[in-house]
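Consider the following assembly input.
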Amino acid sequence: MADDSPASHRRDPIKSSVGNVAAQRRRQNAVTVGKERRESLVRAKRLCRVGATGDGDVPVEESDMITDEEGFLLDAQTSSAVEELKSAVACQGKGAMQKRVNALRELRRLLSKSEFPPVEAALKAGAIPLLVQCLSFGSSDEQLLEAAWCLTNIAAGKPEETKALLPALPLLIAHLGEKSSLPVAEQCAWALGNVAGEGEELRNVLLSQGALPPLARMMLPNKGSTVRTAAWALSNLIKGPDPKAATELIKVDGVLDAILRHLRKAYEELATEVAWVVVYLSALSNFATGILVKSDVLQLLVERLAASNSLQLLIPVLRSLGNLVAGDSHTTSTVLVPGHEITDGVVKVLVKCLKSDHRVLKKEAAWVLSNIAAGSIEHKQCIYSSEAVPLLLRLLSTAPFDIRKEVAYVLGNLCVAPTAGEGKPNLIEEHLVSLVQRGCLSGFIDLVRSADIEAARLGLQFTELVLRGMPNGEGPKLVEQEDGIDAMERYQFHENEDLRNMANGLVDKYFGEDYGIDE
Amino acid sequence: MAMVVDYKHESSFPYWTSVCRRFEPDSPFFSSGNLERELLAKQVALDLTEDERNQLEKMIDNDASRSVFCPIVGCGARLTSLEDFEDHYAARHTASCSVCSRVYPTSRLLSIHVSEAHDSFFQAKVARGYAMYECLVEGCGLKFKNYKGRQQHLVDKHKFPTSFDFFNKAHPSKKKRLKNQQKRRMHKKDEETSSKMEVENETIDGLVSAVSKLSTSDSSPSNISFGRRNARGLTFVPRSIQPPREKK
């Protein structure tokens, strides 16, 4: 809260006033503002500060610092702007339309000035019904644009504020049509994207009101900022958890083709939003995943991963790849066949992600590798002999916890043959021996010591592989050297019964009374 | 032998199986990536500290179980992060006996150890037939007249490993293990009768001085302060300590 730099988007605490009450209010304000700011950062909604057409005459404030006094002033100005609008809307006759546009513009400016627009004041003054009126058919493009812009920013904040847009939804959807001018359609799409980003309930309302088909069509052209906004709005609209929107989207004529086209050729910002659409298509809809896997999309994703260094783009592209691998066995069995060029390409880009500085990329790349390593023996051999293994071994000892867990999955999967029916899976001794010799055991014993149940389980399971599978009965000795016995003995007083039994079982079986006798 | 609880670890150990893992889009697995998306879109990604990021992530991730709690029975302390667990464990669950250096995960267990291993008054009561060996599981409350009885109870009722040996908390060295094996074979018939706990490898002098410096390594208020009822009895240690006897 102490950061006063102009680049920050924080509100300055109260500058004036003295005394205890003021100090208390100051503290409270800081806490609320901090919470408000945090909430606004994580939202899937976006404020429109500069118009879709790049409105030249609006001086966007450099700093977002608003003092309390300035805040009160803004609220007051907003209320009177709404009043202005009210009288403008009631007007008939010649200058009426210009009056309306001016009033709308003024309100829009007030709602675009800062990171925390005076939405509450606007709603209280009764802005919504007026804005809905301004969206009526036959209104000028300028009027529609300004009204949609106001609604966009009203919907960009708190849940109850977004919900206030309900009466406006049918009209916003109507103006997405191909008869509308592009800037108007785009601004309406933006407003709807914010509404969709609020939650499942509003998404369902939008879907039932037919928002999906027109938005999907807006994604088809090659150029224009409209395509990007539409893609973003769609990604919010289909994010579920109900898969039916995703399934519906892939069925729309031309959508698959557009997705592929944009992934192949579009500039990075557009490709990013389209990639997020693919993320949700592949995570939610088996139908969509099936269609995508049979298209060129995997190749395109690999190419993007190889060529780009923009974290914003890499995240959804990597995740799409991951979802397609995880969601459909066809991917690893038929497309990513070991030895084929595309498979090598996939491993290469995953290695690139493992090498990156970004935590998310490392973690999700390891996840994808673990799923490929869950494939056939040839898949495991392919990964085992790649550049990935030395990287993974290093990450297992040095990376943050969540990455280490995913790495553990990869390495363990490399050591175990594909599951074939009941009973314990066979070991791939060559891989196990090599990885253990290269020092992975201590990383797994570390996981045994972790407080995370899943990680501890992985650690114990790998320990079992070592105990069982290392040749010449070396396993127990190696585990003992890494303080594995100690780590397992901790479980005697652990509250999780499964882990207790696992650990106790191993200690009993491999370190019982006869341990170390025959030497 | 009567009750052998064999939890059939052969068949019930959940072996590593290589399977594909899929996550829903709103899974906590994807939280950090989702957060990154929104931060980058608002162009504030670089302005944040690690702490602020963690805070924000907790907001997205509705999964309440993200709070990590210490899993040691009876502890339940909230940990600030998984990375903290090791430190917490070292600070709170490595109570070590200053007499013989054995380490225990709770001060209660340490105190039980001290009574059983270093307290002749305890042994005296055992000799007179009192049920002094308490169950190690907090809340169970049962007490036994001999070590073996308690041991069996732990295995049968609380599924402790059959190799668990409270007295020998530290895993013995190879030499030691061989010695144990030999002794076990030679004195098998004494198993039923022998129930005395002896202090191995302690010189009597060392014991007297060490006992007077008894302390635990964790900072929680210790209930094994030197003012225990049998403390004074320990000054007669030279008489009441048994010479090293056969091991079980």
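The first helix of chain A runs from residue 20 to 42. Ask yourself how this observation constrains the way the partners meet.
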